[in-house]
Amino acid sequence: EYDAKLSVNVLSNGAPWAINSLLAALERQGFDLQPDGRLIMPDGDAGTLFSLSTNVKLSAATTSRLTLLLDVPCVHPSMDGFGAMVACARALASRLDGTVVDDSNQAITSEALTEIAAQVKLFYSHMEESAVSAGSIRALRLFC
Question: Which pTM was predicted?
Answer without folding.
Answer: 0.87
